[in-house]
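Morning!

This is the sequence you dropped in the shared folder:
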Amino acid sequence: MVIIPLYLMLLLLPLPIVRSAGVSPQEITSEISVPRRSSAEADGYIKPGEYDDALEIDLSNATWEAYLYLKHDGNFLYVFLDHVSDTFAHIAGYDNCWVAIDTLSDGGDAPREDDYMFHSSGHHIYLGDGPYKIINGQWEEIYGHGEIPPELQERAEPVKSYKGGGTGAFGVSGNSMTPHRTFEIQIPIRGWEFEEANWTAGFCVAAGSPGTEGDFLAKAVWPETAYANFTGDFYAGGVRTLIPRVDDPQVGSFPPPSTWGTITLSDVPPVIEDKRDYWLYIAIGIVVVVIVIATVVLLLRKRK
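The structure's back. Tokens below.
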């Protein structure tokens, strides 16, 4: 009989390895490489699989659970901060997330004019040490609800196409089905100093709940070296509820560039999954099942 040997041979065939486009969680470090992957959309809704291929960094500590996801598609840098422990739905939108980029990677105890800060609302971009910054302040708004100063329009033009998923969206994610705070920001990477620096720059992400109106003070920050320097009290609205506030940011509110990490955007194109692997796997499985059934039928007939 040739059926049983054939059956055994098929079982011993090496099954194809299914390649995953995802990126394994990275150990906590202040220097990371951001992979080039699929596009996302900073719309405040985390769609299934949207960040499965992104770099994942665990920001959780003994108090909070939070995860940071980073990737780019050659045109935009996508930042998703999943603040799982922040389950307080603050109706006034006091929860905020910021992404800061030091295009010259020159650090410093205070931001300089090569430093940019983007807000999760999609409505605020700040420039470090801008020409119109307030007394004792650190940041000058170059894009927001007001008119852009003529001297800053050239700086604002290539970055104002950035998007944010809202001051802080509230919903579920792959990390938790309990509604919680999620932040999405997508930042253009071409046409400004970030591209001139070959997409290597100082980088900091900080999200916080200011602890007002029943909310609790919670913050998630990357890198860890910047955690203690973030007060978590920025507010993106126009009401003076806290001092310092985001439309009047003061010294000490946001971590100084000397505490930021470094990112490099990888220029390696994404690996496209070979769907034929799946079909081959399915075909082998079907053949094995058919042979097993045929073998059992033959053995039963022999017994009769």
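Headline: The chain has two domains: 3-16+276-303, 31-265.

More detail when I'm at my desk.
O.
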